[in-house]
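Form 7-S
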Amino acid sequence: MAYLFYLLITVYVIVIVGNILYKNGRPFLINVFHQNISLADSINSLLLTGYYLLNIGYSIIALRIWTEIATFQQLTEIVSFKIGTILFLLGTTHLFNIWVLMIAQKKYRNKEIDISINH
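Output:
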């Protein structure tokens, strides 16, 4: 019962958040890569693939690390901890990706400025 409860919530969160990030990340990536839509879409797809692999992999590993559950309170605590860990991992990964993309955007802009000054 605990596995089913955990998996239903985890799959729901992973799919919903993944779709939101993919949909809302596209305009951001298009801006980062200065209207290069094909590059932005490629990066967006790669980020979504990495997101799914990371989260599905962690979710499967988390199934292995399970303790005996005797009460509803224990079920709630264990499932909450596991889902909270996944959400923390998602947030951390997302912030790291945004940070890397902001650095890439600055370098891309500086490269464009250097090219336009030299010509």
